[in-house]
Amino acid sequence: MDTNYVSSYEMKAAQATLLKNVYLWMTVALAITGITALAVVNSPTLSSLLFSGRATFFILLIAELGLVWYVSARIMSLSFTTATGLFMLYSLLNGLTLSVLFAVYTRSSIASTFFITAGTFGAMSLYGYFTKKDLSSWGNILIMAVIGLIIASVVNIFMQSAMIYWIITYAGVLIFVGLTAYDTQKIKQMLANQEINEQTQKLALLGALSLYLDFINLFLYLLRIFGDRK
Fold it and tell me: Nearest Cα to 222, choosing from 156, 141, 124, 91?
């Protein structure tokens, strides 16, 4: 058998395994987030401990942001075990902060929005994986759009404009739908022609973190549209 064919086959098999791990780790992180959020909601002691004052919530939020920035920036210098542990810790912290959603929206609308998000995310991830179109040009546009979204959201905290709120909401959905396709294609390309080792496992973990963040943000913006407030 041609050794080049064997090498090509092995590379494709390695890419398939790494991509499977991307979605596996993303799914595990989402499960940890959801289970943690439900645990907080179903425990009056935890709820009162975490949300007795704004300070605790903002400390958790800052810890989250710091942790996700650290993992994203330093993942290649961390051990795979440490990087995985920090990713799971981040998903747990995210579950703590997202538990506040149950105080705002009904459980049924949160559940239905989750399935809407899963369907939308799945469709766009499949598009990003199978499309022959090069989506790399989307990257800078989408990153600038996210920055604009953050600035607009901060400004609207003070303006309290309903119109700006809904513009941000629908723009957020479009941006993270686009990012899901873009990140999927980028991850697929990043893991092409790679062997399975600690470094490529960390690349796959970083990909899982990117898709996890896309899913969570898409869910939050869709919840604004489909969520039934209490």
Answer: 124
Instruction: Report the residue count for the chain.
Output: 230
Show the tokens assigned to 5. 């064919």
Residue entry with tokens 């975490």:
50
Nearest to 87, CA basis, from 40, 41, 36, 32 = 32
pLDDT tens digit string along 70-102?
999 999 999 999 999 999 999 999 999 999 999
Mean pLDDT of 161-180: 96
What are the structure tokens assigned to 49, written together?
Answer: 């401990």
- Integer-rounded Cα Rg, in Å, for the chain is 19
Q: Are 88 and 29 within 8 A, CB to CB?
A: yes
For the chain, helix (H) and strand (E) counts, in that order, are: 9, 0
Distance of CA 181 to the CA centre of its chain: 13
Helix (H) or strand (E) holding 98: helix 80-98
